[in-house]
Amino acid sequence: MSRKLIAGNWKMNGSLAANQALLRELLAGVKAPVCQVAVCVSMPYLAQAQELLAGAAIELGAQDISAQVSGAFTGETSAAMLKEFGVRFAIVGHSERRQYHGETDAHVADKAKAALAAGITPIVCVGETLAQREAGQTEEVVKRQLAAVIHTNGHCISEIVVAYEPVWAIGTGKTASPEQAQAVHAVLRAQLVAASTLKAATTQDKRVPILYGGSMNAANAAALLSQADIDGGLIGGASLKAADFMQIIAAAQ
Ligand code: PGA
């Protein structure tokens, strides 16, 4: 069983002073974690985080990435730029970007491709809304979202991380139950295994990590992380408090 991955998604939070305080606390508490740990910070703070995390066991992530290589794309940040700041992970297709920035499945798949081409691991987010869950469409929605990424990235999908984040659980305090989450993770696992079997024999036994995200916190992390197909967490609100984030890391060990 490979190490779990606990990734913080700071979203549009932080300041030079707040980041420094948070990262210093994390660095003091997370010396030799048994799991992989990452923080995904806002673009302007990448340089600060890179410097503070140099040589540490905490890796750096971005919250988005451009699907384009370079040129006239105002406001975008390319994979090569992120790479210069030591970025190891990039979240793609977070539901907030799908919702507020109109990102489609195809666009998300292209972003994952751009990340992979630069050696950055995309954390591909999928998840259903409450209306979709209530209409019995959960499986169909997450499979469609993941299928686009599989289709565009071929055998490279063995290099991605998937995050199942039910939209109704994000920032709401309503976590999916461990059983609800596990059920969806099992669906995604089967889809990934089938895809890797088709694409290339060599990728067959490489397990793509599937993280859970959506109101994961210090109290519920252990139960979620003990599920067979939950390989880690993508944590929003609770990653902004060092003590909470470190408790989640401890729950993953
Ligand atoms: P939350 O956010 O932990 O605050 O619910 C998770 C996410 O959106 O990645």
Walkthrough of the structure:
The structure is a single chain. This protein is an alpha/beta fold and 253 residues long. The chain has helices spanning 16-29, 46-53, 79-84, 95-100, 105-117, 130-134, 138-153, 178-199, 221-225, 242-251; strands spanning 5-9, 36-41, 58-62, 87-92, 121-126, 161-164, 210-213, 232-235. The chain has an eight-stranded parallel beta barrel, surrounded by five helices. α1 (16-29) packs parallel to α2 (46-53) and α7 runs parallel beside α8. The model has no long low-confidence stretch (mean pLDDT 95). 2-phosphoglycolic acid binds next to β8.
List its salient traits.
binds 2-phosphoglycolic acid; TIM Barrel; single chain; alpha/beta; about 250 residues; 8-stranded parallel beta barrel
Low-confidence stretches: none
Strand content: 15-25%
Major pleated sheet: 8 strands, parallel, barrel
CATH class: Alpha Beta
How many individual helices? 10
Shape: globular
